[in-house]
Amino acid sequence: MTTNPQKQSRLDPEPIARRDFLGLSALFATASTLLFALLGMLRLPKTAVLSSPAKKFPVVLPDSLAVGEAFIPTGRAVAIFRDDKGVHAVSTICTHLGCVVKNNPQGFECPCHGSRFSTDGTVTKGPAPQPLPWLKVTRSGDKWIVDEGATVAKGTKAT
Amino acid sequence: MSTNTPNQTNQTRSGLEKFWDNIRALPSRFRSAAFRTGVPNTDRSRSSFVFGNLFLHLHSVRTHLWSLKWTTTMGLGIATAAAFLITLVTGVLLMFYYKPYPDVAYLSMKDIHFVVPTGRFIRNIHRWAANIMVVTVILHMARAFYTASYRKPREFNWLMGIALLAITLAMSFTGYLLPWDQLAYWAITIGANIAQSPRELTDALGMTQYFDPGGLIRLLLLGSDNVGPEALIRFYLLHIMILPLMLGMLMGVHFWRIRKDGGLARPADAEARLGELPTTSYPVFTQAPAKTYQLAAIVRGRTPMVGRGPEATVPSMPHLFYAELAVLMFTVFLCVALALISDAPLKELANPAVPENPAKAPWYFLGLQELVSFSAFMGGIGVPTIVMTGLGLIPFLDREENGTGEWFGGTGGWPVVKRAIAIGLAAPIFIETIAIRFGWIREWFPQVPQIIITLINPATILTLTYALYSIYLVKRHNSTRAGALGLFTCFLCGFLVLTIIGTYLRGPNWVFYWSPAYWPKH
């Protein structure tokens, strides 16, 4: 790099002047501090404890519940079935955009975008990308404990 | 006493008399202190009227006659800003009674509707102004596009405009939840799950457990895993604080840039086209201006001021400001008239167990909802992102200069727009007909993997058709502007067709019906 000794000015194209270097470092430090502060601030709205009701709930199935008929506990988006092999629960939250699907003899139907599912949760029509998940059911005396937070493989039935 | 002026008798008057004189002079002294420039009736006082005022000085002192022509802007930008001001005022009024907590929110809406004096009227105005704002912001964008006003040096302001469009839509969407009725609850449930829909892609790629942007966005938006009190207070905060602040700030930048970019875009031969100039406003600057600017130094680009006098300009006060006031008053009139004719809807209280059927978003999102009914990710995030990116890139790809400031200006012009309207309307109608009549891939091959449907669905096919058509136009007319004209026209037409299908032709379970009259009763 050749520099003209007569024109020693800050505007001369030098590799990088000392002041510029310090200034750039200060700017970089400021920018990265603000960036990390912003990322740190995003920690606050990212909820750590969810206020939603407990995922696990007990349910007593009525004796009159027929095979193939769904039992839907009040306030829960779950359909519970009982047959001679045991009890299983299918989530009734559409895997497309979260609407609650309606049970009918053929299976489930979503009112929002027309997805349809067979009784075992398989998608038969519409935009749903995934089948309705089967939920974990365990027995506790004469009650069944359904856990909306835990899925099991299709076909798993509790006895 | 009253005939004496203070000057003549200053020596002889007592302190009490001087005090009395000062009291009598109070109104005129207050006026001259507040409005230092006096009555704006000369070029000089009209200029200082503008730059001596905090709120007006975003305008330039003189306005080009081309900008004042009705057909140049149709007042759409000002109408958008006016609608925003109306929502601001009515929104603050509604906050006196609104309580952002589930169920209580709904009750306070009932109060506003039935008990609060003028509550229903103010809410109606708020709702209509919000709708008008969405319409005018889209039309304003179309105006800026078709007059090729986005070109250099206005590229950045076009980007600002796109950001303002996005924030306007976000404002509407967040406002939609606040009534906490069935419509609100399910529209937000759907909206929040659209935000989560990148999962459709990450699930298909089997990487959701390592990288889940969809789940993170949804969690940040709702503050929980369902739409509840946390979601309501977050949407409220966004609606009344965060988004309006962002909107106000960007609006400031947007307006300021108009001036810094040399005023509104106009044809190079605008002066010749204006014809004979009105004699009443000329000659200009009969007095020496109190301030001079080196315009060439502070305004980028070629300005008409360089090397020429400001011949075709008139003082912004009163010409521009009266025009702006007229647009403001017309917008207010429209909102009030519509508010008197039609009430804002309020359905029954939100019920998380039973979705509204059909659950429809506000009308301007129904086009998206139609796309979402094929693939959540592509319709809700993929295609909108592609469209927004495409719109943002237009000024950086179209570097041509002919036709700036003219309606349908540039290579191709109105004939290209006409043909693009035909293609833009036909393509979505054709694809929708197939999807409605014969179903889509899942019905034909039930075992098909989700990734195929995510990639091949009416939304992506439509986008691809439009993109290929505009590339063809670029090739055929040897001009990027022709391609841009085709693409933008197709985008508007697609938006229109999909919105109409989503609004009028979709019924319960999102099934196709020719009219709501055929909807099954239940």
| Spatial ordering of strands, largest sheet of chain B | 1-2
Apparent shape of chain A = elongated
Helix amount of chain B: 55-70%
Major β-sheet of chain A, in short? Answer: 5 strands, antiparallel
As an assembly, this protein is heterodimer
If you compute it from the alpha carbons, what radius of gyration of chain A comes out, rounded to the nearest whole angstrom? 30 Å
User: Largest contact between protein chains?
Assistant: A-B, 28 and 46 residues
Q: Overall mean pLDDT score of chain B? A: 87
Question: Topology as H/E string of chain A?
Answer: HEEEEEEEEE
By CATH reckoning, the class of the largest domain in chain A would read Mainly Beta
CATH architecture of the largest domain in chain A: 3-layer Sandwich
What does this structure look like?
The complex is a heterodimer of chains A (about 160) and B (about 525). The relative contact order of chain A is 0.14. The termini of chain A are far apart. Chain A has one helix and nine strands. Chain A is elongated and about 95 Å long. Chain A has about 160 residues and is α+β, with helices and mostly antiparallel strands. In chain A, strands 1-9-8-3-2 form a five-stranded antiparallel sheet, with no helix packed on it. In chain A, strands 4-5-6-7 form a four-stranded antiparallel sheet, with no helix packed on it. The model of chain A has no long low-confidence stretch (mean pLDDT about 85). Chain A folds into two domains: about 10-40; about 55-150, 3-layer Sandwich (Rieske Iron-sulfur Protein). Chain B has about 525 residues and is mainly alpha-helical. Among the domains of chain B are: about 1-35, no CATH class; about 360-520, no CATH class. Helices cover about 60% and strands about 0% of the residues of chain B. Chain B has helices at about 15-25, 25-35, 45-50, 65-70, 70-75, 75-95, 105-115, 120-145, 155-175, 180-195, 200-205, 215-220, 230-260, 270-275, 295-300, 315-340, 365-370, 375-395, 415-440, 440-445, 450-455, 460-475, 480-505, and strands spanning about 60-65, 315. In chain B, strands 1-2 form a two-stranded antiparallel sheet. In chain B, helix 8 packs across helix 16 and helix 17 packs across helix 23 (about 480-505). The longest helix of chain B has about 30 residues, at about 230-260. The radius of gyration of chain B is 28 Å and the shape is globular. The termini of chain B are far apart. The interface of A and B includes residues 52, 75 and 123 of A.
